Amino acid sequence: MVVVNMLILILFITPVHTEAAGKMPDGSTIANISIEKMSDSEVKKKLETELTIWQSGEDINLLSDFEQFTIPRSVFEFDIDATINQFNDRTKRTFTSLFMRQKNVQIPLQVTIDEKHEAIQNLKERDYINFAETIASLEANASQLEGSDIQIIYIEGKDIPLETIAEVELKTPNLSNAVLNYAIDELENYVIGPEEHFSLLETVVFPENLTKSNKELNFLGTALYSLFLQTNFTIVERHANVRLPAYAEPGIDASVSVKENKDLIVVNPTKLSYKLEVERKNDILSVALKSSKSDITYQYELENVREIKQRTIYRYSNKLKPGEKQTIEAGSKGLKVEVYRSTYDQNVFTESELISKDFYLPEPTIILVSSDDVVEEDTTDENLEIEGGTGNVDGDNGLGIIDDGLIDPNAPLISEQLQQLKEMQEELERRFAAINEAFEKFYQNDNLFDGLFDEEEMDEETEEKIKEFYEWLFDLILKGEGEETNGEKEAR
Q: What's the domain count of the chain?
């Protein structure tokens, strides 16, 4: 008995390693994959299958606020045999634990990264990135067969170099310096985060003493709109001006107004942030959008630009001699234009997207002629139209004769002019439909006329008459009502 007891004591003291019966314990996982009750060969087959599926997935994204790198899954090198051996080492029993229940074990896959790969070398060259910690994060992610985005880890105190993605320079027209400088301060260094929207009216909120800011907002909106057209930002809201401002390209302007609730709104569809840099030197406004460099670039292009000839209005004066003429307003032509945004990958064109179709009204040419030079109406020519009562410049009662200029008798092809008329009609019908829809939406609103008039500059009687006219106009558009006698029409 003494000898037996000594042998038992020696066995307890000396570790005797014994493999479990070939099956993995309950609750055991490798890289979050359940392997309970499997043999080593079954575990290996299971891991090889899951690894093949994982490696066929999309690239891993390394992200920060202003940078993004894509890491292909081929850079990860897995050792399945070493992983299984590690698992078995963790689950081996000694003689002392022979009668204890096996404990479940969760371990990751053993993985290393090929640092010679181009994508990893590109990351390593960035001396402001903490390469070792960023690589460790990538390995930890892959060891669990996860595909989520990884945050780039930077070296504290080092700045991230940003590239200019798009920039615009505009000559500043005659505007309020106080209003413009306030807005520039609000916009400078503004960051548009990933998948965030940017609203000009939300970003630039003027104090009460700077409320009259339409011209300045239009100018800034135009600069920003032309900037965003050079990116893949989604244009959510933008309003064109009725007539093209002198500082803007056709189709590249923006009308912004607090009173009219007209905003410029865009959305950043990427996972990167973009920073606005706005600066004014002398009479030049510079606006830039900065982020990390990309091989994908964007440009806006104008197509199908068509001029709309302005009409000529003749007004009469008894102070001019017969045959004498005087130009009061030179007028300007209208425009139709289509704006496209083109995408380039490493300067190679890939696709084009229609952004807008814009129409700008022409400014009529107004010419003053002698009241002795009566321009006879040609009833067979649609070029002329009588406009009663508009030619009274010097107190005379002459008629104003309008040459609408839509059909040019000297044009080589009348069909082109007719096509132009048709396109104008379609555009006006589209605009009328939009106005009609707006009237239907807001007609019942009790606050319809709030802010429509400047009460300080208009007497109560005049304001009331204009409001009555607008109500009559709404009825006319909405219900087809408002037929009047000639006398009522003249009164209007």
A: 4
CA-to-CA separations, 113 to 74, 79, 133, 302, 442, in angstroms, rounded:
9, 12, 13, 48, 62
Domain extent, residue 392, equals: 304-338+358-406
- Residue at token pair 């006219």: 469
The string of pLDDT tens digits covering residues 195-242 is: 999 999 999 998 876 766 789 999 999 999 999 999 999 999 999 998
Helix (H/G/I), strand (E/B), else coil: 31: coil
Cα–chain center distance at 155: 32
What are the helix (H) ranges across 64-176?
80-91, 118-124, 131-143
CA distance 44 to 145: 15
Instruction: Report residue 384 as tokens.
Output: 């002329």
pLDDT digits (tens, 9 = 90+) for 172-194: 999 988 899 999 999 999 999 99
**What's the pTM value of the predicted model, to 2 decimals?**
0.61
- Which helix (H) or strand (E) segment holds residue 386: the answer is strand 384-387
* Residue 191 identity (one-letter amino acid): V
Structural domain contains residue 264: yes
CB atoms within 10 A of CB 122: 11
CA distances from 2 to 13, 60, 247 (A): 17, 66, 109
Helix (H) and strand (E) counts for the chain? 11, 23
- The H or E element that residue 199 is part of is strand 197-199
| H-type alpha helices, 195-287 | 200-203, 214-228
Clarify whether residues 397 and 473 are in a common domain: no
- Inter-residue contact 190 to 237 (CB < 8 Å): no
CA–CA separation, 203 vs 185, rounded Å?
A: 11
The owner of tokens 């396109």 is 423
**Number of other CB atoms surrounding residue 403 within 10 Å:** 19
